[in-house]
Amino acid sequence: MEAPEPEQEKKPEPVNKPQAPTATTAPGGTKVTGAAAAGAKTAPAEGKVVEEIVARVNNEIITSSELDKARASAEEDARQDCSGKCTPEQLQVAIEDRQKSALRDLIDQSLLEQRGKDLGISVETDVVKQLDQIRISNNLKDLDELEKAVSAQGLNWEDFKNNIRNKILTQKVISQEVGSHITIGHDEALKFYNEHKNEMVRPEEVALRAIEVSTEGKPEAEIPELKKKAESYLKRINDGEDFSVIAKRFSDGKTAQQGGYMGVYKRGELAKELEDKVFAMKKNELTGLIETKQNFLILQVLEHYTEGVQPYDKVENDIMELLYNQRMEPALREYLKTLREQSYVVIKPGYQEMAGGGNSEIEEVSATPETTKEKKHHKKYLLFGKSSGSK
């Protein structure tokens, strides 16, 4: 399970511009952040400096430790993506490229989280569902066991939940504020297909999703009951219930969170027994109950691609997704640029390049930055607080 980033802390009232912005521990162990921390003296009697502030996003801060964690996470992601595919030189380039954008990504994340709160988007139900899916994929009995497992890895449970909460929140903001304005029409997708038909050649493949009922490590006496459970899921699907809904709620497999979606497979990539079954099946057909050494398995063929140039109806969804993603990236970057322009974002000297822009110095910001920062023309929406007037 991935270690989450701690939620950024709020900032109190402004003080004079500091010489060296910091987060400070006050007497008694209370952590003071933001303007109060930035203006705090470092005399032993008042507390000690624990880390510096590298950026400020409205009334929130990004600290050096958060940046260090983001850079470490960027390196880990690069190593995973390059595993078995990159030379050492290519890996190093990938790590450096991702680390360069670490601060920019933290700033973007903060802007999106704040925008989500401003829009009043609630994600608590989604957080509970996500936690339950993590629990299921790790074969844990309940959320208490999940909390213990998270803590056993040295992670803070509240930070773990906050990380999930913030990721879901930013995804919803992006979907609502950016994705909802991107539409791909049938004519556009068909035009792309006709212009790139020679790229639509593929070998025979099947797209699969699965529901698994684990028997691994279970007493022999429990196996018949587990089989009945798997058979009940199969009956519910045959009776018309949605496969993905059943998979998300009941599957013990690691793909449960994706509605059981396993991916696309060529011949030779599956166990021979499974290959013989699924490559003889048509789209949407079910295998019936398959018993293995580890589980009871139900497979569904989402798509069966024949060898050669694919007909339009087989690749329409793929084309739609491709065109959507091509538009999403520049649209999201433009949206984030707008958020920055309408927000108070300041960067510590020496960090501007990796932050993707910002003021040359850390400055103090009041509790309502919209009223202290000079506005550029009329804003489409007010992000933080209430305006005291327009300029």
Structure description:
By secondary structure, the protein is of the alpha+beta class. It has a domain at 201-309: Chitinase A, domain 3, CATH 3.10.50.40. The protein is 46% helix and 15% strand. It has helices at 34-38, 64-82, 88-100, 102-119, 124-137, 143-152, 157-177, 186-195, 223-238, 243-250, 272-278, 312-341, 352-355, 369-372, and strands spanning 22-25, 31-32, 48-57, 60-63, 201-202, 205-214, 261-266, 286-291, 295-305, 308-309, 345-347. Strands 1, 2, 3, 4 and 11 form a five-stranded antiparallel beta sheet that branches. Strand 3 (48-57) and strand 4 (60-63) form a beta hairpin. Helix 2 runs antiparallel to helix 3. The two termini are 48 Å apart.
Short structural description:
46% of the residues lie in helices and 15% in strands. With 391 residues, the protein is α+β, with helices and mostly antiparallel strands. The protein has a domain at 201-309: Chitinase A, domain 3 (Roll).
The gyration radius over C-alpha positions equals 26 Å
CATH class of the domain at 201-309: Alpha Beta
The number of helical runs is 14
Overall pLDDT confidence: 80
- Indicate the CATH topology of the domain at 201-309: Chitinase A, domain 3
Globular, elongated, flat, extended or rod-shaped: what is the shape?
globular
Largest sheet: 5 strands, antiparallel
Share in β-strands: 15-25%
DSSP helix fraction: 40-55%
State the separation between the terminal residues, measured CA to CA: 48 Å
Which spans have pLDDT < 50 for at least 5 consecutive residues?
A: 1-45, 358-391
- Structural class of the helix and strand makeup? alpha+beta
Number of strands: 11
The H/E string reads EEHEEHHHHHHHEEHHEHEEEHEHH
Q: Architecture of the domain at 201-309 in CATH?
A: Roll
